Amino acid sequence: MPSDQNSPNKKPTDSICLALSGGVGGAKLALGLNHLLAEQLHVMANTSDDFTHLGLNICPDLDTVMYTLATINNKELGWGLANESWQFMDALEQLNQPHWFRLGDRDLATHVTRTELLRQGNTLSQVTQQLSQALGIKSTLFPMTEQSVATFVRLENGSPLAFQEYFVKQQCEPKISGYYFQGIDAAGPSQGFLDSIQDSRLCSIILCPSNPFVSIEPILSVPGITAALTNHPAPVIAVSPIIAGQAVKGPTAKMMQELNMPLSALGVAEYYQKQHSGLLDGFIIDHKDHALKPQIEALGMSVLTANTMMNTLQDRVTLAEQCLSLAANLTHEHGLL
Ligand code: FO1
């Protein structure tokens, strides 16, 4: 902890917020936070969905957050760029090359640039910073690690399946019995994380409503990250990605069923508490899940109900305000900072 953590001169206007995010759900809240905080927002994205495809380094969650913060994201698809064309994919198909993972013509520029900058010896943090700046993003976006980590799901027969093969090629259809992050033990926190956690202005840490198992868990599994977040005096708040027993998008609900977890916001809170005891100070659930509040509070977290659906930009900004205000209240109540 930096020595000036308890400085009485620290003004709330100086505060920075660190958000942990996967793809689309996390990016929506990151956009709301970005509206309120701009330069004072740091976003750390999951990189265990990353893979090399057609010789290119693809970082789906970093790109989803980056395009969303730059407001050039494809809202219909939930990934990639708006106003996209697909001539590259058409040409690839004609050459009988794999075309199950769709790279748009404009999106391709990001992957080619990233691949070349990495080849030149830049770290993924440096490349991400360069791309974000070029797109005019004021917040600081960085990966969870500079090292290569890859999510695999385990099928019912125990065999592993690479994440994008599961998610995109097989449309999350196979039943899973588990998941793991290849390379995680050898990974370390990214420079961006180390800078954020050591910044005396860090006042709130938010686990965005992304998939707890394959988006947030890989970030928390990077050796050193969970301990640093738990030991930091800033309150840690998670937003449930499950609303009334359903996921807004993606396979979270299906995974919870297959992993025999209660399919509810309570199930998510219990998961975080079991895996990372003492990490969460606050938990935000949807108004529809109000009845679960006492049970989640019994796990030792403060619970706030809100509209977590985030259909509109205003919804995202309002939820971001509620996250920051819960963090401020917890800081005040518990004298955390
Ligand atoms: N998701 C799909 O469902 N189909 C695709 O063809 C696809 C291509 C793609 C290309 C670039 C990129 O950055 C993301 C892409 N995604 C695609 C999304 C991505 O694979 C997943 O949403 C994330 O990995 C889960 O967070």
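^ FO1 complex. Residues 1-11 have pLDDT under 50 and may be disordered. The domain at 16-334 is CATH 3.40.50.10680 (Rossmann fold).
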